[in-house]
Amino acid sequence: MTPLTRMLMDHDTVRSQSDIVADHSGESEAEKLVGSFQKTIAMLPVLLAVMDLLKEEIPSIATQDEQTASLDSQFKRITEDTREYRERLQLLTQKAGTLELDGRTISLEEFGRLFNRSLNDSVDKIVNISKMAMKMVFTMQDAISNLAGTHELIANIQKITRQTRLLALNANIEAERAGVAGKSFAVVAEEVKAVALDIAKLSTNMQQKIGRVHESVTNGFALLQTVATTDLSENVTSKNQLDQLLESMVERNETLRDMLETMNAQSAGLMKSMEAVTITPDNDQHRQRTLEQCMRAIGHVSACFQNVMRHAPERFSQSLSTRNVSMEYAESLMDGLRTGNVKQQMASHLASRGLDIPSTYSSVPLELDKEIANEDIAA
Amino acid sequence: MDITQELTQQAATFVFKGAFTFSDHEDIKGVLDACQPPVEQVTLDFRAVNFVDSAALGMLLLVKDEAEKHSIKLSIRGAQEQPMQMFQISRFNELFDLVA
After folding, report:
1. For the residues of A193-246, what is the DSSP string, one character each?
2. pLDDT 10s digits, A314-372
3. Maximum pairwise Cα distance, chain B
């Protein structure tokens, strides 16, 4: 039970007791009025106590207000955090589905196109390299075949050279047999033999060189076979897997973006709700002002009650004890009357109650009525 | 891989069987040699081919060049599974007449 509730309950007890006390029959109207007024006066301390309690309670309301303010600041912080979270979410939504390339932002779709173009290019190159390698293989096979033909030609040359040398030898024998007449012929036969030897040397040399070329070409062909037989089909089919992977990435990214957008919308709603909960500074100031005004009003009322409590009982009891009507009251009563007779009767009544009534109020009524009539006309 | 040849006056059909790889380069010479007038149409039957490697793709491109050189119509028939996948990835559908 708060002090204020307790006080109000006490006040109810006091009032019921005063009602019992005040329950007298046979009192005049004036005495009843006085009784009521006294009861009212008796209740004033209770009211005053209530006011005092209110004055004490209001600062505690202010304390609660501080707690509310603390809660409010926490809400503000949460709102701020939510705003920051939302900004990050927006950034993430923007960044999702984009990549950085040479300082340029590109979308995942564009990346897909670039990637696909690059893969197609790679596959084209692989297939083209295979084509070129096979062309080289066929060309080198032809070269080896032609070199083999050259070998045969050189063998033929060597055969002819051998025959030429044989012919030169035979010519030499015949020249010897001819004696002096055949001497010049022997010289020619010697020259033919020398030429045949040169051709034999040359052909042997050629055969050796062509043999080396053949060896080189054969080695090159073996190497080319290694290149051409390197199967790039896996690299080609990997394009298919990469395509699927990219499609999956784009799909996943779309899902992610959808989710982020949903989260973004939810965070916007959350932020709005948080802002609605947060007390604005304007409201806060207004509440503070209202509270101050209440305090001032209570102060005024309290001061008024104190004033009444201090002066009213004293004055009221005085007027009741003498039972005299004040001069001011009498004058105001008579000023309100218009008819001279009534005024005169009232003057005499008041004089009989012991008041010193001026002679003007006890003069002839007709003269008074005339005066009043003149005043009315003047007015 | 086995290659059998069905040759008429103006059309040559080569039926491939098995895996078509680099090792078949000697046999493919027969196909290249067939790309000569008076032949006007060369068909490569791939229905029984279960694998092609990158060298095979290169050899097919050489056959295509040879056929184009002599204005011969070239088509590949019945490719499926791995060979068809390789043709699609290499965009052979844009270069060859691929028929079912």
Report:
1. HHHHHHHHHHHHHHHHHHHHHHHHHHHHHHHHHHHHHS--HHHHHHHHHHHHHH
2. 655 554 444 455 566 566 655 655 555 566 666 777 777 777 777 666 555 555 556 65
3. 35
Residue pair A239/B89 in contact (Cβ under 8 Å)? The answer is: yes
- Chain A closest CA to B38's CA: distance in Å? 24
CA-to-CA distance for A206 and A210, rounded, in angstroms? Answer: 6
Name the residue facing B59 among A128, A134, A236 (closest C-beta). Answer: A134
- The three-state secondary structure class of B99 is strand
Tell me which chain A residues have a C-beta less than 8 angstroms from the C-beta of B21: 229, 231
Mutating which of A127, A137, A226, A238 best tests the B interface, going by the most B Cβ atoms within 10 A? A127
Residue whose C-alpha is closest to residue A43's, from A13, A87, A80: A13
CB contact under 8 A, A236 and B90: yes
Out of B32, B53, B61, whose CB is closest to A233? Answer: B53
pLDDT digits (tens, 9 = 90+) for A101-136: 788 888 877 888 888 888 888 888 888 888 998 898
